[in-house]
Input
Amino acid sequence: MNGYPFGFAMTLNKKFTRNKQEKIDLIYDTFFKLILKQGYHKTSTNHVAKSAKISIGTIYKYFPRGKEDIIRKYFEDSMETFFDTHDLSQTHDENIRDFLNHFVLDLFKNHEENKGYNLAFRSTIQSDKMLHDTHKEKVSDFFKDYVQKLRKKNKHFQQFSEARLVEVFVFMYNLVNAVMYHHLSVMELFDTDEKFVEYLSNLVVFSLKYYLKT
Amino acid sequence: MNGYPFGFAMTLNKKFTRNKQEKIDLIYDTFFKLILKQGYHKTSTNHVAKSAKISIGTIYKYFPRGKEDIIRKYFEDSMETFFDTHDLSQTHDENIRDFLNHFVLDLFKNHEENKGYNLAFRSTIQSDKMLHDTHKEKVSDFFKDYVQKLRKKNKHFQQFSEARLVEVFVFMYNLVNAVMYHHLSVMELFDTDEKFVEYLSNLVVFSLKYYLKT
Amino acid sequence: MNGYPFGFAMTLNKKFTRNKQEKIDLIYDTFFKLILKQGYHKTSTNHVAKSAKISIGTIYKYFPRGKEDIIRKYFEDSMETFFDTHDLSQTHDENIRDFLNHFVLDLFKNHEENKGYNLAFRSTIQSDKMLHDTHKEKVSDFFKDYVQKLRKKNKHFQQFSEARLVEVFVFMYNLVNAVMYHHLSVMELFDTDEKFVEYLSNLVVFSLKYYLKT
Amino acid sequence: MNGYPFGFAMTLNKKFTRNKQEKIDLIYDTFFKLILKQGYHKTSTNHVAKSAKISIGTIYKYFPRGKEDIIRKYFEDSMETFFDTHDLSQTHDENIRDFLNHFVLDLFKNHEENKGYNLAFRSTIQSDKMLHDTHKEKVSDFFKDYVQKLRKKNKHFQQFSEARLVEVFVFMYNLVNAVMYHHLSVMELFDTDEKFVEYLSNLVVFSLKYYLKT
DNA sequence: AATGAATGAGAATTCATTCAT
DNA sequence: TATGAATGAATTCTCATTCAT
Output
C-alpha cells in the first residue's frame, strides 16, 4: 500500500528519477538491443537515449566517452557474468565428456543472450586496440582462475598441468565463440540450435584431442 | 592511333588516362586497407578519397551510394575471385583428403588477402539485410556451380547427390570462414598459421564425416 | 554555550557547520583559481563544484544565476575590499608624490591578488551590459566617497574641487588598471614587478599633470 | 551582358558558390562582428555560420578546430596587416615626435577596426598557452623587421642600436595597446577619441624618455 | 570525366539548471 | 540545508552527398 487510492502513486510522473544501477542496466539493454536491430555504426548515443527514455546527459554521466565506454564497461563485467552462469558445482559430472557438454551449452546460452554485445564488441575491437588487448588478457585471466577452481573440485582435471589446462580452455573458448558467432550472426550452420549445439560438443571433443596431441 | 601526332597525348595525359577499372581497384584497396587499420565505422568515404588521392566525386561516380556500394560491388566480384583462385584443375587430387587440404588452403589465402573486406562485410551485414540475404544466396549459387563442375571432373564426388554436395560445401565454407575470421581478427587459435591451417584441414575432415552422418 | 553538553556538537558537526560566508569564499576562490588556470569560457559551474568539493546545488543556492552571479556578487564586494586595503590613515604622507606611490602600490597588490577575478570581469563585461554599466557607476561612487574622506584628512587635496578630484581619481584608477592588466595577463612591460611599479608611479604623476592641464 | 534579360542571372540562386578567400574573409568578419556584439563566449560556431549565411561545414573546412582556429589563423595575418597600414614611407617625418604621433595614430585606427579580434584574442590567450607564446614571439619578430627597415630609411633612428630599438618598440606597442584596449572596451579615459589619441602620443613620448633612461 | 568546395542533417558532447532525496 | 543525479537545450564536430567548375 502506498497510501494513494487506486495505486496512482505508481503512475506519478516524476521528472527526475534516481536509481543509478537501474539506469546503467537500462542503457546496456537498450544499446545492445538497438545494435542487434540496426548494427553498431547505425546506433547513436542519442538514439539510445531516446529509445531508453533517458536523457543523453545521463548516458554521458555514466559513460563519459559514449559508445566506446558502454562497450568497455560492459565488457569489464561480462566475464564475471559468464562465471556466474557456469556454476562450478556442475562439475561433479562423472566424466569430462559431460562436463564439456555443459561448458558448450553454457557458452551458447550466454552468447545467445548477449548477441548485441558480441556484435558491438566485434565491431569495435578493430578500432580499439586497447579493448582488443584487454580482451585477450581478460580471457586468459578468467580461465586461470577458472582452472584453479576446477582442479580443486574435479579429479579428472588433475592429470593435466594448470598451465596446459588454461591453454586448452582458452582454445576451446575461442573455437566455440568463433563458430557460434558465425552461426548466430552470419549464416547458420545447422537448421536448429539443438543440432548445432550437439555438433559443437563433438567439435570440442575432437579439437581437444587434436590439441592435446600437439 | 589516338588521333594525336607523335603519340604525345598518351604521355601527356597519363594521369588522366588511368582507366576505370584501375580507379575502382584503387578505391577497393584503399577502402579495405583503411578498414583494416581503423575499423569500419571510423573509415569515411572522404577519408578514402584523400588517402587514395582521388577526388570524392570520382568515388561517388563509381559507387553512387558510397561505402555500402563499395562493399556490395566488391562482394559481387569476390565469389568469382575465389573461383579463379581455386582452380578446379587441381581437383585431380587422388583422394578427397588432398582435395580438402587444397580447399582449406585456398580459402585461407583468400581470407588473409581480403581481411579488410571481411571486416567490412561483417560490419555491414547486420545493418544491411539485403546484403546479408544476397550473401547467402550467392554462396549457395556459387557452390551449385562449383559442385557441378566438380562432379564432372572428379569421380570421387559422383557418389553424392548434387544437392547434398552443395549443402556440404556451403557448410564447410561457413565453418572454415568462421574459424578463420576469429583466428585472424579476434584472437589467434594457434601460434603459427601453418599449425592453424593443418588444424583446419583436420577440422574439415572431422566435420564432414559428422555432417554426412546426419 | 551551544546548548549541547560537553560541546560535542561543535566538533561532530564540524563539516556541516561550515558557515555561509566560508562556502561563498570557497566558491569565489575556486572559481577565480580555475579561471586563472584555463580561462573564463573553459571554466564551468559544475567544474567549480567538483574542484571545490561542494555540491553544485550549493553553488546555485548562493548564486542562483550561476557564473554571472558569482562575478556580479564578487564585484559588489571588490570595491569595498580595495577600500580596506588602501587605508586612508596612510594619507598622512607628507606630499602628494608619496601618496600616489602608495595608491599605485595598493592597486598593484590588489590586482595581483585578484588576477582571476579581473580576467573573469573582462571576459564578462562584453556580454553583460548591465555589469559593464554598474561597474562604471560603482567606480565613480567609490571614488566620490574616497575623495570626501581624503579631503578631510589631507590638506593637499583641498586645493581641488571635489568633482574634479573624483574625475582625476577615476582616470588614474583606469589608467593604472589598464597598464597593470596588460603587464600581468598579456605581455609584461618590464622584467621585474619592482621596475614596473616604479614606472607606474611616474606614469601616474605624468598623466596627472597632463590631465590637470586639460 | 550575361545573356539573360533584365540581369536575372545575377540573382540566380546557386546552391553552391565557390570563392575560398571571400568565404574566409566573411567568416572572419562575421565572427568578430558577433563577438563585438555579444562577447566571445556567447558567440558559437553555428551562430557565425547562420549569421554569415554559410554552412557550418564550410567553417570547419577552413578552420578544423572551430573558434580557436579562427583566432589563430586571423592572428597569423594580423601583424602583416598592421605592417601594411603603417606605411614606412611616412617615416620621412622630420623628427621623431611626428613619427611617434603617426605610430600611435596607426595603432589606434588598427585597434579600432579590429576591436572584435582584440576581444577574442584577449578572451582566448588565457586558455591557449600556445597562442599566447606565439603572440609574444610574433610581436618581437615583427618589430625586428620593422626596425631594420626604419633604420635604413630614417637617420634619426641610427643613433640607437637595433636591439635597443626593437625593445623600445615592443614596449611602446604594448603600452599603447594596453591603454587603448581599456579605453575602447572597458571604460573610456577621455570623452573623445581625439583627446585620447593626443594623450597617448604624449604618454608615448614620456614613456620613451623614461624607458631610455633605464 | 574529374575535381573538391559547399552543404546540412545528424552524431557526439558539454553545461547551466532543476529537483528528488 | 546540502547533495548530486537527471535533464535537455545548445554546442561542437563529422560525414555522406551534391553540384559548380
